[in-house]
Amino acid sequence: MIKARWIERILEPRFTLGTSKGSIEARTVWYLIAWYHARPGIQGIGEAALFPGHSREFPADVKVKLIELCQRTDDWQQRLSGDLVEVPSVRFAVEQCLLDLERSGTKHLFPSEFTLGKRGIPINGLVWMGDKRTMRERIREQLEQGCTTLKMKIGAIGWDDELELLSEVRSEYQPADLVIRVDANGAFDQNRVHGVLEQLAELDVHSIEQPIAAGLIEAMAELCVDPPLPIALDEELIGHNRLENKRDLLDHIRPQFIVIKPSLVGGFVATREWIELATERGIGWWITSALESSIGLNAIAQFTATLESEMAQGLGTGKVYSNNIPSPLFTEKGFLHYRPEGIWDLSSLRHVDS
User: Fold this and answer.
1) What b/e sequence results for 140-159 when a residue is b if at least 16 CB atoms lie within 10 Å of its CB, and e otherwise?
2) Is 310 helix (H, G, I), strand (E, B) or coil?
3) Residues 101 and 127 grouped into a single domain
4) Which of 211, 278, 279, 336 has the greatest count of CB atoms below 10 A from its CB?
5) Coil, strand, or helix at residue 343?
6) Coil, strand, or helix at residue 303?
7) Residue 258: helix, strand or coil by DSSP?
8) Helical (H) or strand (E) element with 313
């Protein structure tokens, strides 16, 4: 028989994480921990990490489901395709928890050359919002660390300043040497966005994520018809939890790319559904974190490694927290790696808060 408990934790960023939707000063996540009654020392752990301002879930939704799951553990598998579909972060936590328990709590969820330390995952260097000087410093830091794909958040400090920063980078690095992506988080007005896309195209920017707000389906579909540069759906995917809804969304908008956050779309199964639907339609994709702690990031990274994509993924967020769970994950020269001999320090999860 499985027993379970849950823990709430607040993660503290090393610096303010700026986006066009506001600044992130702290991040709340929840851990679902399960074990067999006869073997309490072997525990599976999964992380639920909804994202305020992006997720359709609320903290109260997560807590209610976690309480239910811990009170009754014999129906988790059935609930993965039932009520948990509409609570994606909790569904993902259950997937992680059960798989980790099956792997004897080792956190080796998807053994591969990645977990053996033989192969890294290409990742983009992420430039968070800040004032112009700070962003210039962050760009330089990413480039000096050897990243070959740079992703910059735009839409918060003023387009003229952001365009100037992008122009500076492109004047120094040609497209063959550095891929530039931008993420607008829905910042631009429908009437203004066309001009922005044209200016980005002149700089050979690879793609723009979510140029206008999610939910403007007709406007986004129009933008995706022969745009100056490829458009990637991000927030637009959130809330489309059923297969038929995903299919309808992609058929209607026909984007060039989709950006998949497993924590926000419902985990491994849901991510595979998005990838299969996109591939069938000739739509490209990549996977990104949603600022999970090491537990969730590890699960996403190991899963992503099995897909063997050459596209740079958005998985370089592990260093943003000062109190993250120490893990074998590390970044180096534009790649995320797993150190097999590394140690998981799970001491912070030993106390029960629920």
Assistant:
1) eebbeeebbbbbbbbbbbeb
2) coil
3) no
4) 211
5) coil
6) helix
7) strand
8) none
Active-site residue set: 153, 261
Task: Let me know if residue 352 belongs to a domain.
Answer: no
Tell me, yes or no, whether 161 and 55 share the same domain: no
Single-letter residue type at 312? A
- The pLDDT tens digits of the residues spanning 181-214 come to 999 999 999 989 999 999 999 999 999 999 999 9
Query: For residue 180, what are its two tokens?
Result: 């530039």
Same domain, 96 and 165: no
158 and 85 both lie in a single domain: no
C-alpha to C-alpha distance for 74 and 151, rounded to whole angstroms: 43
CATH number at residue 128: 3.20.20.120
Q: Write out the residue range of the structural domain in which residue 251 sits.
A: 121-338
Q: In whole angstroms, what is the distance from residue 245 CA to residue 57 CA? A: 18
Report the alpha-carbon distance of residue 292 to residue 47 in Å, rounded.
8
3-state secondary structure of 246: helix
Question: Is 349 a domain residue?
Answer: no
Enter the tokens of residue 332: 């180096």
